[in-house]
Design goal:
- It is built from 21 helices and 19 strands.
- It is an alpha+beta fold.
- The chain folds into 4 domains: 157 residues; 93 residues; 84 residues, Immunoglobulins (Immunoglobulin-like, Sandwich), CATH 2.60.40.10; 82 residues.
- The strands form 5 sheets. It has a 7-stranded mixed sheet with strand order 7-6-10-11-4-14-16, with helices on one face. A 4-stranded antiparallel sheet has the order 3-5-9-8, with no helix packed on it.
- A hairpin with a 2-residue loop joins strand 8 and strand 9.
Length: 584
């Protein structure tokens, strides 16, 4: 029995190998392989090479030696002849069946089954009933799995009306009851390929009842292929119930790749504490944080996609993945503005607003030092950022104008609770006297300095509320890239006033030199007022209102005759005394 199984394993390896690549293979190689048929102990390997290289010259040799072989080797020879397309395959197959009674290794029904397999390969189905005869004996437990390939032949008969009803029932039986799980999968695949949606209830049964994990997963994959209408809910049902951890991971991956709604990420977030396999826990955790959501269904009316993004934003607020009511209101306002631009047929300006939305989400997520209450967690950023990007991908991009670029703005940040008007300096290239600066979508008085520098008058009312405001330059036909001016309730980092040194002027007066250290990564505007003043009065003695990044020394000086001079800056002070260190 062991030898018969070994023969069958080798036989399968022979029959299913096909030429899969081209290589230099000449006549001498063929003759060498054919000569190996006479080598003792190498016959199976040689037959494998003959099939692999499709050496049809072997057909006469195989036919001439056929009857001198054992019954086992005859079945192998017959299959090789069928693979090579021998015109005499049917003749030898029928003759083999007639000789079955003389076999001392096989039952006649097994010989007939092997011959039937070879006949199928030459499109001869005249002995197909042998498959059903063998299956009957096999189901009754009177035969082993050596002829299990009969199950693999069944799908070929589904296209024959005279066999179809019986084959269908056999495949259903195999899919439910066959011990060998691979055959259960084969039968299931054949039924789905033939009957499609008719077998959705059957697939649901297999997903829920089969005892083997990869058979359950195979049934699920077939439901996915059929686009089963309630697949979304089925994933959430089966993931916690699946016993094999890797398929729990597959369910999670499918859930996010196929659907990726905010509620799906939230479902996985809540599921994770109950996951008991460390690898699955790690992988599903990474999916829920980093898996990009699938592209939203593209609507002919892009406002529908914007409405979806508004809905996602609100859902994430409920999940506490995004926070602060004012921030939420700002995000919603931006999306409503984007919709209004679409209604006005201005898709380019709509793009600017969607880009602003995306930048708001991105800035709050990245700013780990942000002291404001608004926040976006990784899970929330992943959903909002990419769905905004999908909308941007549908909107037209402004024409690329290499001669109009905006590289930097100074200042770039201020505080909402200390607004004031100021002059913004914009650096770039391609500017002209017709260039106009836009702040939050509104044109502002612009002064042309050079082709690389513009000044713009920014109102106190422009910067009185926290938020991120787009800034760009237009020449009337094209726009530059957009930069963001950020208004915050509190600065992420401090600006430290510095008193450098004091000079004794020799006439009873002293001159103090002040600088500062701006620890923020952008320039900051702090107007001259109670938190940016010199004491004693007057408050304004030439101190700056715009603070560049880093340490700046001897930015301004103050001359006085007695007492101390103090620079108050955001609750930090720098004091000059007549006894302070002198200047070198």
């Amino acid at each position: 029995m062991k030898n018969r199984i070994l023969y069958l394993i080798v036989l399968f390896s022979i029959l299913f190998l096909k030429p899969v690549y081209s290589q230099v293979f000449g006549e001498a190689d063929k003759q060498r392989i054919l000569a190996e048929l006479d080598s003792t102990g190498y016959e199976f390997l040689t037959l494998k090479k003959i099939v692999f290289y499709n050496i049809t010259e072997a057909i006469p040799i195989l036919e001439s030696r056929f009857w001198s072989k054992s019954m086992t080797m005859r079945t192998v020879y017959l299959d090789v002849m069928a693979e090579l397309g021998s015109p005499n395959t049917a003749y030898f197959a029928y003759a083999l069946i007639d000789s079955a009674e003389t076999s001392d290794m096989y039952l006649p029904i097994e010989i007939k089954l092997y011959a039937t397999r070879s006949l199928f390969k030459v499109n001869d189905y005249s002995t197909a009933n042998s498959i059903f005869e063998w299956l009957e004996e096999y189901h009754q437990g009177r035969l082993g799995l050596e002829g299990g390939f009969a199950i693999m032949l069944l799908p070929k008969l589904l296209d024959f009306p005279e066999y179809e009803p019986q084959v269908k029932q056999e495949l259903i039986y195999v899919a439910r009851n066959e011990v060998f799980a691979d055959y259960r999968n084969l039968a299931t695949d054949a039924l789905v390929n033939k009957y499609g949606d008719e077998f959705i209830p059957f697939l649901l049964e297999r997903v829920r009842e089969d005892t083997t994990s990869y058979v359950r997963w195979n049934a699920f994959k077939n439901l996915r292929k059929l686009d089963y209408s309630d697949l979304h809910s089925l994933i959430k049902e089966r993931l916690p119930l699946e016993t094999e951890y890797i398929y729990r991971v597959f369910y999670a991956d499918t859930l996010l790749k196929r659907y990726g709604q905010p509620s799906d990420y939230y479902f996985l977030k809540n599921y994770l504490p109950s996951e008991n396999h460390p690898s699955a826990k790690e992988m599903i955790g990474l999916y829920s944080k980093y898996q990009k959501p699938p592209k939203i269904t593209l609507s002919p009316e892009i406002v529908v996609n914007i409405d979806s993004l508004i809905s996602y934003t609100n859902q994430l607020n409920v999940f506490e993945w995004i926070g602060d009511e004012a921030f939420m209101d700002n995000l919603t306002t931006i999306l409503v503005e984007a919709k209004s631009k679409i209604f006005n047929l201005d898709s380019l300006l709509c793009r600017e607003w969607i880009l602003l939305y995306q930048q708001n989400v991105d800035n709050v997520f990245k700013d780990s030092l942000n002291l404001n209450p608004e926040f976006v967690l990784r899970e929330g950023w992943n959903i909002l950022y990419w769905n905004a990007q999908y909308i941007l991908d549908r909107l037209p991009t402004p024409p690329v104008v290499l001669t109009l670029e905006l590289n930097d703005i100074t200042p770039s940040m201020s505080m909402a609770n200390h607004p004031g008007s100021f002059t913004m300096e914009l650096m770039g290239s391609g500017f002209s006297s017709s260039s106009k600066v836009y702040f939050n979508g509104n044109a502002r008085a612009t002064t042309f300095i050079s082709d690389s520098t513009l000044n713009a008058a920014i109102f106190s009312s422009d910067v009185s509320a926290a938020g991120n405001f787009p800034v760009w330059v237009s020449d009337g036909t094209t726009n530059s890239d957009t930069l963001v001016y950020k208004v915050v309730n509190n600065l992420p980092n401090q600006i430290i006033p510095i008193m450098n040194c004091v000079t004794n002027n020799g006439n009873g007066t002293y001159t103090a030199y002040f600088g500062y250290n701006n620890k923020n990564d952008v320039s900051v505007f702090v107007p001259v007022y109670s938190q940016n003043k010199i004491s004693p009065d007057p408050w304004d003695r030439g101190q700056p209102g715009v603070f560049k990044v880093g340490v700046q020394e001897r930015v301004f000086s103050v001359t006085w005759s007695s007492g101390n001079i103090i620079w108050h800056l955001n609750n930090k002070i720098a004091t000059a005394k007549t006894s302070s260190p002198p200047c070198n």
